[in-house]
Specification:
The chain has 404 residues and is of the alpha/beta class. The chain has helices at residues 87-94, 104-113, 116-132, 148-158, 181-189, 191-196, 214-226, 243-249, 263-270, 280-286, 293-299, 319-328, 334-348, 375-378; strands spanning 2-12, 33-42, 45-51, 60-63, 68-71, 73-75, 135-141, 164-170, 202-207, 230-235, 254-257, 275-278, 303-305, 365-368, 385-390, 393-396. The chain binds zinc ion. Residues 77, 79, 234, 308 line the site of zinc ion.
């Protein structure tokens, strides 16, 4: 069964279909698009892309009616296994109270009290919310259990909905280890890791004042990598600490946040395979200064955008919001922001099958109600996603397209 989507005003393919000489000034990150385009899906993969006038026949046809189609968004950073909510903390923060890493503990308490069914239901609700807004691949972290049993069930429940599961036992030191952070790091690197590693692909650590220092973070990553996991790091969120340098040293796929960077950090990211994952929803929701995306892009670093959806510092599941913030507040071009939310996220997850629409890519698509990708930032806050396909299967939005 083949499906032809035609009459696409702009098809963002991301560097797979360069029709003209790349213009580094206009599209330094690999964004590429075809106008008046069509795309053919076969067996869950992209089988053909090109001008609509040359499109081959297919078993089924979808008329995009002049809308834009993009790769499904790849969200490489989310914390979706938790219970409870922290709306009051957000309101207090907006009234002037500062954000501190310790706020995570209230979610830990609620998560420990929740049943597996409650955690699963909350996760599935958020995953469905993401999908409806065009996120077709997402990473999901543990980190609100912080006991062997609660971390193990967190990664096991996450693995039911995504392949990109991250063990984040080193999120904060839980209250029962107050005064004994070394004892907690031993647990994270020992029995907790043994229980979680079979369910996870990644190991992560919150390297920050109030969470884990450089040596503790290095120990957590080394233990996780020895257990077969790949590294990613919460780095340089609140302070210009050692997280980015550590991430690059261990060959992490991504250093996430990057809101406070030294020149050496920027240089390290620009000359490594470690992506800089920016999470502008956090700065929006904590009223902190946004990361300097231009400095990273101009230095040649790979920049990804992700939601960081979590109940504390940023409770959005909207990649279009992150794109709009990146463009408006971080001076990324619309092309750079869309690339970062698709191909950049794929880089941050070391995936080559998603984040682009080259022939052979997984047919993960987003159709938006506008003629170009720029509408994602040009029309902020508007629910523009009118169609979502994952692995060639249409999942959301069909009812919103007349005749679609
Ligand atoms: Zn995070």
């Amino acid at each position: 069964m083949s499906v032809l989507i035609t009459n696409i005003a702009e098809l963002t393919t991301n560097g797979q279909e360069r029709s003209a000489a790349p213009d580094p000034a206009a599209a330094p990150t690999g964004f590429a698009a075809v106008t008046d385009a069509a795309l053919v899906i076969e067996q869950g993969r992209v089988a053909w892309t090109g001008p609509a006038s040359r499109a081959p026949a297919a078993d089924e046809m979808v008329d995009a009616e002049g809308r834009a189609v993009l790769p499904g968004f790849v969200d490489s950073h989310a914390h979706l296994v938790f219970a409870g909510e922290r709306g009051a903390e957000f309101a207090a923060r907006m009234a002037g109270q500062p954000y501190r890493a310790g706020g995570i503990r209230s979610t830990v308490a609620a998560t420990r009290q929740a049943t597996d069914g409650q955690l699963r239901a909350n996760l599935r609700r958020l995953a469905a919310e993401m999908l409806a807004q065009g996120i077709t691949t997402f990473e999901c972290k543990s980190g609100y259990g912080l006991t062997v049993g609660d971390e193990e069930r967190s990664v096991a429940i996450a693995a039911e909905v995504t392949h990109e599961v991250t063990y984040l036992g080193a999120h904060v030191v839980p209250p029962e280890f107050d005064g004994d952070p070394a004892g907690y790091v031993d647990l994270v690197c020992g029995a907790m890791l043994d229980a979680c590693a079979p369910h996870a692909r990644w190991v992560d650590v919150f390297c920050e004042q109030g969470a884990f220092g450089r040596d503790e973070a290095a120990a957590v990553l080394a233990a996780g990598m020895a257990a077969g996991l790949q590294a990613r790091v919460h780095a340089n969120q609140l302070t210009a600490g050692p997280g980015v340098q550590l991430a690059v040293e261990v060959g992490a796929a991504s250093a996430d946040h990057c809101s406070n960077l030294t020149d050496a950090d920027v240089e390290a990211l620009a000359t490594s395979a470690t992506a800089a994952t920016l999470l502008p929803g956090v700065e929006f929701s904590t009223r902190h200064p946004y990361p300097d995306a231009r400095r990273l892009l101009d230095a040649g670093a790979t920049v990804a955008l992700a939601t960081d959806c979590n109940p504390g510092s940023c409770f959005t599941s909207s990649m279009p919001l992150c794109i709009a913030l990146a463009v408006r507040e971080m001076h990324m071009t619309t092309q750079e922001a869309v690339w970062a939310a698709t191909a950049g996220g794929a880089r941050a997850l070391r995936r080559t099958d998603v984040g682009h629409l080259g022939v052979g890519a997984r047919a993960d698509l987003v159709m938006i109600d506008g003629p170009s990708h720029a509408y994602l930032a040009y029309r902020p806050g508007v629910p523009l996603v009118v169609g979502v396909w994952r692995a060639g299967e249409r999942l959301a939005g069909g009812e919103r397209l007349a005749g679609g």
